[in-house]
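Thread: pyridoxal-5'-phosphate complex, take 2
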Amino acid sequence: MEIPFLLFDKSNPGIKAEMLTAFEKVYDSQWYIMGESLLSFEKKYAAFSGVKYCSGVANGLDAIIISLKTLNIGPGDEVIVPSNTYIATWLAVSSVGAKPVPVEPLKDTYNIDPGLIESAITPATRAVIPVHLYGQACEMDKIMAVAAKHNLFVVEDNAQAHGALFNNKPTGSFGNINATSFYPGKNFGALGDGGAVTTDDHSLYEQANITRNYGSDKKYHNQVKGVNSRLDELQAAFLEVKLNYINDWNKERNRIAALYKEQLTGIGDIVLPAIAPGCTSVYHVFMIRTEKRNELQQHLLKMGINTLIHYPIPPHLQQAYKDSMYKRNDFPIAEHIAGTCLSLPIYPGLTNTQINYICDNIRLFY
Ligand SMILES: *Cc1c(COP(=O)(O)O)cnc(C)c1O
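Output below.
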């Protein structure tokens, strides 16, 4: 049996007709950038995220960069980031000229350890970027409390957790201004690149709108040295269609995760994902850990089961961060996760037969 790591259109074949209608509407409107589809989607995505404002941008990396720019974070500033994250979180900090300062994750949830944030704070620290990694909300009460105590901004990186909750409040609604990605492979993805910032702060919202559009508040009037990073009308229209399904899709991911957990408990040395109290996960990734990761991955591949590693090299050991002089063992928890993690297929449309086949083959391996 051949099981791909990800498939986009298995769950809702009917959605294609809705997407084509959305395409036609934008095509016929003769207006392709910064129009009604964007405004309409932004309103709905703000409501989905439990905030007042949303500003659509070109991708998730830009969403973090624009968030940091609205907070005037730049050269000389430090920003606390997880040691265990996709490199985009770090790159956003670096690209505004600030310094990413890594903090290790909790060993069971893989999200940033709120108890370690304080020891990473220096007089130069301006902000913390918690990442709701693999789809699980961070413990935002603890993070907000440390940030408030030290007068730091919080910018959530919500690229992997659209629809996840902490104490019944959606991710992307806690920080001063928060970033998300609509990359096709995310739980909530466009048919191309896309991203957004979400905030309750009207002035940060206005600043984000200006920054994404050449720093311009009025045509040919430029307030700041902005960028060109806009969510286009087509992607906004596609996303508005998909927004009607995201909660169902997240439920389906949770159903699949529950089946995996049921079948994989107690098998070999497998460590299953743990969910912290008050948190929910939308299982962007179903990550298991094992000391025999590479062998298990090879075995599953031979059986037609495609898996991925999120992520094989933590940011501090990437060539791109050679200049920060980090070395092996500087962030041992992140490094251990990188060496032992394996992501199993999880997406709406994955059948029980496929899930059973995957679990049977994992059992067989051990
Ligand atoms: C995908 C991702 C991003 C970047 O999003 P893009 O749209 O690909 O630029 C940022 N942070 C995390 C945690 C991500 O998973």
